């Protein structure tokens, strides 16, 4: 028997459908405005003067509501700490399997461009869509790519877990440090322009006060964290002799 | 019209995700249900900020910029949801090492 | 400024621990003790600020409708005090058991403290969701920390159900934002009464369902017995004693601020959930053989009591609920630490295997007796006092059924706690007599845990004796008045 008894499934379906109908009635009763209202109007009108950034979403994430971003990067920090705790006891079984010669050479040519692309996304986060999270994910993808193409021993030599821990903690402390600088200067925790960070010229990379620094901090944290997650999990798989490349 | 379709499809996906979690025995399908529910909620959030004929909220604006606040919430919620799902998968892999199965009823039965 | 330090100090401690670990392999106990002391004093400082001069902290200097605010009033400071006492006790027990070894455990512990202070101090709905997620992920990991297969399963179940709850909370937040465009709780308290009725129903259903799943109220409590029983001793005590209370604070804040002025269905739903939890928790506890699962189901029932108090939607109900929250923290932490220590010493968690403990651990068993008398609700103890206040407030709100449910629950809980106590006091079987004739194992002295448990038992006696004194009544009634006074909260944040 593949699934639960029929009565249970029927009850579950009734519950889900009624929940969906309740939510639909609730959503349909709200009228969709034709123009932006409320706080969003203020953000759209005043972001370049109050924060120095052009990307309004980045200004919300790293200036107006920077505390939420601190919390969110802490969630990743906690999850990474936990996953490396779950998989910590295995000694890594070196595997120098990788892909073929053509794949290695090809990836070796492409990786610097990917890194450049990721850095551009991180550093220009306050000018165009992008930012620390998106760029950090691409950095983590680069390490996954290196692991797949060159074999995991390459990764364990060049990016050992302790380096990633260090990067992650450094990113976290950088974010909190910027916040504490704001606290010390008297303007409040995680203040941007009112704490004395220079607004710069609107549209240049060195503008928007502390937002580029926060972007870099988040990119470090997210990149190192996601890379640690991948490394911890495949470490376990390779130890048991199951290679992720083979189907089984 | 597009907005209503967005909400309707998001709610349908949400209910499918909840139903999957409640009725499937395979632990991986539970994780898929969680991912479906999360995607549905994020779709609702993003659709709520839509303005017909809108443009991205990047200064200088050309036309009518959409609401930037849901975009910020979605970014935060994506990261949080991804951490939860990564943690769930890590748990399942670790359980699989020991019980050699990802079937929920057999795991409960093996525990004794 | 103390408000933001209560969150930032434990966060910094958590971020610094991996760096210390890279420098030297094992951390020293005094380092962790120092960081713990710093975090807890920061939280207590925020509690005192909130009590004597309720304050608002605008993060980044932005106005409440643009940015995030931190709010400390009497309700927050009461729960901050509760959380600080609980986490201090749990940290002391962990240090005594693990010394400086598991650095990841301490990292996650400090992140848990930071997120708890964040939930208790925040004044913004989405920020509440974010801190709640840090809190939950840290809790899942602490449950799974002991890495036994039972703990991993319990952690996975907790994770799946907790994430479903989190997604419902996120959906409720999204609906609120769609309907009003505001996320600040004070401004929402002003604007929510004027949105359409169906939307309000949907918002309240989502938020209540999500928070109920996270708290462990009866119909959706399935993760609680596994999680609280499979965790380590100190972690179980922390989970049942403190984490549940923080979730209840979230329910109180959300329901009092948003739904007090908009029609009474939400509070009726909370009262019903509370009553079902009381009956369900006690009845399930009656059938348990494992002492920690029994205590976990007892927690479900006690959550029900507190929810009945919250559902009265009055100042008296809120005051009674907070009083019971304090008492339950003291009682349940003491009970879990005792049960965990005794189960470790006897190498079993079955009640029928925990015999003859009266001879070998007299102080532990007498503290357990005092604490279980308190939690059952024998008259001079604090458990009786807080249940009495809850019954009074629910009678004042006009319903009689919760009072009957509480009385029935008291009788059932007396039955199963007596069963546990009689197992402790009865002499050992012949099988274990011969085993104890062998050279005695070296039982590690648990001085600090014993001191904590006996002091909690004494505090229960003291709180029970002084329950009718003016200091105690004024303390709790001011908390209750502040909890339901929506106008004062809005005025505190917005200045109107």
Secondary structure topology:
The complex is a heterotrimer of chains A (248), B (112) and C (496).
Chain A lengths: L5 H23 L10 H12 L5 H9 L1 H21 L14 H23 L8 H19 L1 H7 L2 H24 L26 H29 L9
Helix pairs in contact in A: 3-4, 4-8, 4-9, 5-6, 6-7, 6-9, 8-9
Chain B lengths: L1 H22 L3 H22 L5 E2 L8 E2 L2 H32 L4 H8 L1
Parallel strand pairs in B: 1-2
Chain C lengths: L1 H22 L5 H24 L2 E4 L10 E4 L1 H25 L4 H19 L3 H19 L5 H32 L4 H7 L5 H19 L7 H8 L2 H27 L5 H22 L4 H21 L3 H32 L10 H4 L1 H15 L5 H15 L4 H25 L4 H8 L9 H19 L4 H15 L1 H9 L2
Antiparallel strand pairs in C: 1-2
Helix pairs in contact in C: 1-2, 1-4, 2-3, 2-4, 3-4, 3-10, 3-13, 4-5, 5-6, 5-10, 6-8, 6-9, 7-10, 7-21, 8-10, 9-10, 9-12, 10-12, 10-13, 11-12, 11-17, 12-13, 12-16, 12-17, 13-15, 13-16, 13-19, 13-20, 15-17, 15-19, 16-19
Put the structure in a nutshell:
With 248 residues, chain A is an all-alpha fold.
Plain-language structure description:
- The complex is a heterotrimer of chains A (248), B (112) and C (496).
- Chain A has 248 residues and is mostly helical.
- Chain A contains 9 helices and no strands.
- Chain A has one domain (40-239).
- Mean pLDDT of chain A is 84; it is low at 241-248.
- Chain B has a single domain (2-50, 65-111), classed as Helix Hairpins, CATH 1.10.287.3510.
- Chain B contains 4 helices and 2 strands.
- Chain B has helices at residues 2-23, 27-48, 68-99, 104-111; strands at 54-55, 64-65.
- In chain B, helix 1 (2-23) runs antiparallel to helix 2 and helix 2 (27-48) packs antiparallel against helix 3 (68-99).
- The model of chain B has no long low-confidence stretch (mean pLDDT 87).
- Chain C has helices spanning 2-23, 29-52, 74-98, 103-121, 125-143, 149-180, 185-191, 197-215, 223-230, 233-259, 265-286, 291-311, 315-346, 357-360, 362-376, 382-396, 401-425, 430-437, 447-465, 470-484, 486-494; strands at residues 55-58, 69-72.
- Chain C has a two-stranded antiparallel sheet with strand order 1-2.
- Chain C is globular and about 70 Å long.
- The chains are: A mainly alpha (248), B mainly alpha (112), C mainly alpha (496).
- Chains in contact: A-B, A-C, B-C.
